[in-house]
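Feature request, filed as a ticket because there's no other form

It would be nice if the structure record came with a short human-readable summary line next to the tokens. Right now we just get the raw output. Example of a typical job, pasted below so the devs can see what we mean:
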Amino acid sequence: MRRISSGDCITHCGERGDDVMATSSIESRTLPQQIQAHLIDLIADGILRPGEPLRMESLCEEYGFTQTPLREALRSLASQGLVEYVPNRGYRVPQTGIEELKHIFQVREYLEGLAARLLATRATQEQLAQLGTLAVECDEIEDTERASAHSVSRELEFHRLIVQWCGNGLIRKLLLGPNILLRMLLLGSGFDVQRGGLEFDHRAVVRAIACGDPEQAESAMRSHIREGAELTLDALRNSISSETGEQEVRSG
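Raw output as currently delivered:
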């Protein structure tokens, strides 16, 4: 059994858990808030997999939670759409299908486009340098490998920094749920996304932001996310078709 502590939360919550309680410092979090952030990391990292039941007794035994704050944390996550509550069955990790994934990318396209637009008016040279380095890393990874824990982490870090630096905290809060579900899907669903050769790659987004033109920056980011959405949706459709075919072969 691995018990949760305040130190655990500070280490494991990272950028994902910290966003849940953006108005609270880590030191002032209540125990339910700490558990909530820890569960978010477990879901985002694919440790708790899509569709997996979140049984109170099992979670308490495995992670050292206690039932009352755990119940409160699960209720809060359910209200944010980060876990699902099924009457008479309890909580479970959400499963994301094609329609849900479309909605996630629609939200990301508009909100991250706005973030890029805002950042184009305020980005520092240090921020541009950091984004530029990360963009090169992301594009080189995507030209040579499929979705992995490392490539997904680098991809989401690039987008997280743009949102973090845009100066609008509400955008970051609104994107928390969609980005967690996307990370969970990419890491936990076992399908491959080939992203090499995008016309609007990460470096194109950085170049647009560096130009200081808000409209160009927004357009580049939206095009980048739209291209990525098409590839990801195609990969999910292919994965579903493959699974359906295998099931038909077994049943036949």
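Something like this underneath would help us a lot:
The beta strands are 53-54, 84-86, 90-92.
The radius of gyration is 19 Å.
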